[in-house]
Write a structure and sequence with these properties.
542 residues, alpha/beta, Rossmann fold, GMP Synthetase, Chain A, domain 3, eight-stranded mixed β-sheet, seven-stranded mixed β-sheet, 18 helices, 24 strands, binds adenosine monophosphate, AMP-binding_CS
């Protein structure tokens, strides 16, 4: 016998309808490509989304057609997202920091029919346009600009297009399992592969990310997603924000620490989300500018391991609670979030901190396990000590990659993340490393993350990465690549001495390489593959 309750499909359009109906005047503030600010709200975002849906309606697209976006976090981009997915097309967000060849590969692979881009990317679009034969319309997300029209003769302008449209549009109702958006993996995990999210997976993911034990979002928040909308849909924040009706501050293209401090202080941001390199820049800038970030209550750090020193600085200097989260493109991305339980309140500060530094536990909707092999199904002990291949399953986890005919799952239906981790009995996850970043020295594993955490707590180092270098006797040995703080005179010997008594002697890196810059990829993560290519043979040379 079936239950007698209403059955409404979980559609992305219902999120923007909700935000408009109940939170119409809540501010959506946005920094434009030219640095100017736009003050909008959920009423205007929703109305413009409907106007742009009318524009798309004239393009004779078919349900499921891909509309690509190459844009920063701003209000026009947000409106276009709701218009695209709400109309039944697929919003394909693209990382503009990729090389032109990678961009054209991804756009052709996805069969994008329309490309929407920020003014910043006019040069890029001009360069790759001829390699995109399937694209029927190019839309610049801005007001009319004669210079841009000269560079790209057939270009359409977003503001001109929506200006002529009615704000009346009835969002179509369809199967919640239809595709809503497409993100390609960032390449941290190998060759870019498309992950095709559905309306259902997106709405369920939004419910989970708002919960008190995840990002704890509410209508009282003023949220700043620093994580770009092309990095796993800004971790779903544009959807969760509409679900709870909180304020949004969209930081545009300038993600340096000083610009972010300015936005947080001026617009009283309560909660912001980003990768560790972003927060490092913010902490440096806040200290230089003398800001105490008074409005910032919480910040979420994810995408890469959070250095312990960062949690402490946010807490002690800024009274800001840092929430460490783990996820990946394939997991929408929410896989685990670190919030403590009632039983942890009795712990002292040191034990609380050590628990908080791990990646947290899964919210309802996903399950985690660790196994002995990548494709294996022998589950390992949840004792907080045994490390194994981390696997995940749940409502918003990929089952197969875009345009792939093979399943991406193990025989018994789990997705192998490529991470090596421990789990404890409460499900608290600790990522030891990515399987390919682990260092195998004389048959023993060394975690690069653990060595990085120690180095990054050294006050004279600004940015660090540990990689495996080939060693004639031990196969691999860890080496530390480090960027010093400005004016620092610290020596390699001092850094290596800093490791003593913090870690087993044989795990201390063999060498320190000081560099001016550490390569960072499009989503703000350190490019270890590049570092391995540059320094992987350094121990053979000495
Ligand atoms: P991406 O799909 O590019 O976001 O990359 C996902 C990968 O980033 C994961 O498989 C992890 O290796 C890494 N990652 C994400 N969050 C964390 C975290 N909090 N700590 C350590 N590694 C992380």
């Amino acid at each position: 016998m079936k239950g007698n309750m209403m059955c409404q499909p979980l559609l992305i359009s219902s999120l923007i309808e909700h935000a408009e109906r109940y939170h119409a005047d809540t501010a959506v503030i946005s920094k434009n490509s030219d640095g100017t600010m736009t003050q909008s709200n959920w009423r205007e975002v929703a109305a413009n989304a409907r106007r742009f849906a009318n524009v798309l309606d004239h393009f004779q697209l078919t349900q499921g057609d891909r509309v690509a976006t190459l844009a920063w976090n701003n209000h026009r981009h947000l409106e276009s997202w709701y218009a695209i997915s709400g109309s039944g097309y697929v919003c394909h967000t693209i990382n503009p920091r990729l090389f032109p060849e990678q961009l054209t590969f991804i756009m052709n692979n996805a069969h994008d029919k329309v490309v929407i881009f920020d003014k910043t990317f006019v040069g890029l679009i001009s360069e790759i346009k001829s390699a995109l034969p399937r694209v029927e319309h190019f839309i610049c997300l801005d007001a009319y600009d004669a210079e841009i029209e000269k560079a790209l003769p057939d270009v359409l302008f977003y503001d001109l297009l929506i200006e002529k449209q009615s704000d009346q549009f009835i969002w179509p109702e369809f199967d919640e399992n239809l595709a809503s958006s497409l993100c390609y993996t960032s390449g941290t995990t190998g060759h870019p592969k498309g992950v095709l999210y559905s309306h259902r997976s997106t709405v369920l993911h939004s419910y989970a990310s708002c919960l008190p034990d995840t990002f704890n979002l509410s209508a009282k928040d003023n949220l700043m997603p620093v994580v770009p909308m092309f990095h796993v849909n800004a971790w779903g924040i544009p959807y969760s924000a509409a679900m709870v009706g909180c304020g949004l501050v969209l930081p545009g293209p300038m993600l340096d620490g000083a610009s972010l401090v300015e936005l947080i202080d001026r617009y009283k941001v309560t909660n912001a989300l980003g990768v560790p390199t972003i927060w490092q820049g913010l902490l440096n800038a806040a200290a230089n500018l003398g800001s105490t970030l008074p409005s910032l209550i919480r910040n979420v750090v994810g995408g890469a391991a959070c250095p312990p020193a960062m949690v402490l600085t946010f807490k002690e200097r800024y009274q800001c609670e840092t929430i460490h989260a783990w996820g990946m493109t394939e997991t929408s991305p929410l896989g685990a979030v670190n919030q403590l339980k009632a039983k942890h309140t009795v712990l002292d500060d040191t034990d609380k901190l050590s628990l908080r530094l791990a990646q947290g536990r899964p919210p309802f909707g996903v399950q985690l396990r660790i196994c002995d092999q990548e494709k294996g199904i022998n589950e390992l002990a949840r004792d907080g000590l045994t490390a194994g291949h981390l696997q995940i399953k749940g409502h918003w986890i990929v089952s197969h990659y875009f345009a792939a005919d093979q399943s991406a799952l193990t025989q018994d239906g789990w997705f192998d993340t490529g991470d090596i981790a421990t789990l404890d009995q409460d499900g608290y996850l600790k990522i030891c490393d990515r399987s390919k970043d682990l260092i195998k020295s004389g048959g023993e594993w060394i975690s690069s993350v653990e060595l990085e955490n120690i180095a990054s707590s050294h006050p004279e180092l600004e940015m660090v990465a540990v990689i495996a270098a080939i060693h004639p006797r031990w196969d691999e040995r860890p080496i530390l690549i480090a960027k010093k703080q400005a004016q620092s005179q610290v020596t390699a010997h001092e850094i290596l001495t800093y490791y003593v008594n913090k870690i087993a002697k044989w795990q201390i890196p063999d060498q320190v390489v000081f560099v001016d810059t550490i390569p960072v990829g499009g989503t703000g993560k350190i490019l270890k593959k590049e570092l391995r290519e540059m320094y992987g043979s350094i121990l053979l040379e000495s």
